[in-house]
Every structure is written in structure tokens, then in C-alpha cells.
Amino acid sequence: MSTRHLSPADVLLTQVDRALRTLAPGKVTHQRPSPAQTLNEAELTDSERQHAAGLMRVNHAGEVCAQALYQGQAMTAKLPQVRQEMELAAEEEVDHLAWCQERIENLGSHTSLLNPLWYGMSFGIGATAGLISDRMSLGFVAATEDQVCKHLQDHLSELPEQDAKSRAVVEVMLEDEAKHAHSALEAGGHRFPAPVKGLMSLVSKAMTKTSYRI
Ligand SMILES: [Fe+2]
Ligand SMILES: [Fe+2]
User: Fold this and answer.
1) Please, which residues have CB within 8 angstroms of residue 174's CB and are 6 or more apart in sequence?
2) CA 186 to CA 62: how far, in whole Å?
């Protein structure tokens, strides 16, 4: 395995490159094909289409946050094994990011204009958690993924029944996020107390409400 030492400038450039690729439309490519790929486009009314696009925009914004969170953590995690795991998880999230982006485009809409803001905030939170401790960092991943799972479950009940394409993307994401939460706890993540999770839930509600619209 390569142990090449990266200078602070190298690290900064890598981070800027990742951020731009996450935020610029069409710059991410998926490893796994989209779960929507083989399904037929459903007949949707204008309002159903808008609603589905709004929900997928929220999911995409969540994936932008996941990228930033993992990048921030990978930068400050102390144990090489934790750092490696964070980078691996971030790569899996790239699929989600690309699938959501593709789906939003197919629904004739756009990703959230607030994504740069969410990226900056999440990167800061991730880097801070990593600075505190690896256990904290992994615990934060687990708590965040739990939150994401709840949103995805809600979206499955809110998406138009006939929109099989959006539903297929959300279903696979839900499986992956549950796996991420589980492995972060298995790796020694701190179990966050209910009040902290409650606060995280409030922040994510504010984020989802705004991303649904803009
Ligand atoms: Fe994800
Ligand atoms: Fe995840």
C-alpha cells in the first residue's frame, strides 16, 4: 500500500478538487449502474413530477453532505484504518450522488442551489468530529446515517406510487445507508445520546425543507 506523504498543499488541492467535483453538475460518475436504469419512466402529473424532483433534490443534498462529512473526517481521522474506511464509504456515496443527480435531471429539475453551503457546513462538522476522536467521528457517521434512513423511509411513502425509477434509487440507498450506520458502530463508533440525535434531527429538518424548494 502506498504511504506517500502528502504536503498540506497536496491535501488542500485534493479537497478542493473533490468539492468542485461534488458540486459541479455532471462531474461525478457512478461505479454501479443506477437502480432506475432498467425501469420505465412512469406517467406523472406536473405536480407529482415536481414533488418527486423536490424529494430527490433533498436526497441529493444529503449526499453532498455525506461527501463533505466523509472528506472532512478522512482529513482529520487519526487511525489509518478509520481514514481508509471513511474514504471507502465516501466512494460508495458517490454512486448515490450520481444516481440522484441523474434522476433529478430526468424529472426536468435541478439540484439544490444551497449545496455549496451544505458542503462547507458538513465538511467543518466532519473535520471537527475527526479532530475530537475517531470514536466520535464514527459515532457521528452512525447517527447521521440513521437520520438519513428515516428521511429515505419517509420519502418512500411520499413518492408517487407509479414513480418506480425514483423509488428504486431510494430503496437501494436506504439499504446502503443502513449498512454504513451499522459498520460505523461495529468499528467502535460512540453511540450518541437521544438529545444530541434530537438536535441533529432539527438541523436536518431545516435542511430538507429548504432543499426541497431551492
Ligand atoms: Fe448515501
Ligand atoms: Fe451512507
Assistant:
1) 149, 152, 153, 156
2) 23
Per-residue pLDDT of 78-106, as tens digits, reads: 777 776 776 677 778 889 999 999 999 99
Residue 95 alpha carbon to ligand 1 centre in Å = 8
pLDDT tens-place string over residues 170-184: 999 999 999 888 888
Residues 6+ apart with CB under 8 A from 157: none
Q: Please give the distance, rounded to the nearest whole angstrom, from the Cα atom of residue 45 to the centre of ligand 2.
A: 31
Domains in the chain, CATH or no CATH each:
46-213 (1.20.1260.10)
If you average pLDDT over every residue of the chain, what do you get?
Answer: 86
Q: Is 129 exposed, middle or buried (0-12, 13-18, 19+ CB in 10 A)?
A: buried
Angle at the Cα of 201 from the Cα atoms of 16 and 124, rounded to 5 degrees:
25
C-alpha to C-alpha distance for 173 and 178, rounded to whole angstroms = 9
Q: Contact, 100 vs 59, CB < 8 A? A: yes
